[in-house]
Design brief:
single chain, 256 residues, alpha+beta, Deoxyribonuclease I, Chain A, 7-stranded mixed β-sheet, 6-stranded mixed β-sheet, 5 helices, 15 strands, disordered N terminus
Length: 256
């Protein structure tokens, strides 16, 4: 945090770091040969020291250090005790909620967080998955008609979920930051609707392809941090870690 000006009414500007990561249940189902994934994810977060953390596909067996992140909002999917979303915060959560997406394991949650300088609403979104194998050879063997039907249903669900999000965002009394796994690209209609006039942290301060997920050999950017235009983006980083099929990303914003 630093101060500008030389009067008694100095404006305070806070560096605010926010990290988003689809952790794939910390490998508890054994999809990867990586070991001690949960502990390593927690250590990674501790090293990076973000102010707020959004996990998708979160398993409650692993909790960030409560002395650093005393505030938490978690919602498990459809009553599941082992799968859901969480927001950890260094700062107090003054209110919270869930969008409660219907008939799916995906969801969106939010927390209103009182930082040193402002209160803001952080969304942790996990929009509908297409449930496709990332192996192109396997995909090519699937029945094309059945595949198109499945894709159509997923697109329809994504559109319904986006509408739910937009209604909630419109009612927010605070400027917003949207984090999460969109399961769609920055060229998609649903991304453009969620983004609106917000900053895309990667577009403002990132470099390279911005890929956070690999569909076979194809790099995709499907995980995002979008922030109110009120909060300038000063840094953005994607971390090359082997602990999930997604890569974590973190943005540094200026909050006045």
């Amino acid at each position: 945090m630093f101060r500008l000006g030389n009067s008694s009414d100095l404006d305070v500007i806070q560096d605010f770091k926010i990290l988003t990561y689809n952790v794939r249940q910390f490998n508890l189902n054994g999809w990867s040969k990586e070991v001690r994934v949960g502990e390593r994810v927690l250590s990674f977060v501790k090293e990076q020291q973000p102010d707020v953390v959004s996990f998708q596909e979160y398993h409650p067996s692993f909790v960030l250090d409560k002395t650093i992140y005393p505030h938490k909002h978690s919602v498990m999917a459809n009553g599941s005790k082992s799968f859901g979303q969480v927001i950890f915060s260094k700062y107090p959560i003054v209110s919270k909620g869930s969008l409660d997406f219907e008939k799916t394991g995906n969801n969106g949650i939010y927390a209103d967080i009182a930082t040193l300088t402002d209160t803001l609403r952080v969304y942790n979104m996990h929009f509908q998955s297409f449930s496709l194998s990332p192996d192109l050879n396997s995909l090519q063997k699937q029945d094309s008609k059945r595949l198109l039907t499945r894709l159509g249903l997923a697109f329809e669900k994504q559109e319904q979920q986006v509408q739910k999000y937009l209604i909630n965002e419109k009612s927010s009394p605070y400027p917003v930051i949207v984090t999460g796994d969109f399961n769609n690209s920055a060229t998609s209609y649903m991304y453009r609707k969620v983004k609106g006039d917000k900053n895309d942290a990667f577009a403002k301060a990132g470099s390279g392809t911005g890929a956070t997920f690999w569909f076979d050999i194809i790099p995709l950017r499907i995980d995002f941090i979008l922030s109110s235009a009120k909060f300038p983006v000063v840094n953005f980083e994607i971390f090359d870690t082997p602990l999930s099929d997604h890569k974590p990303s973190m943005a540094t914003l200026k909050i006045k």
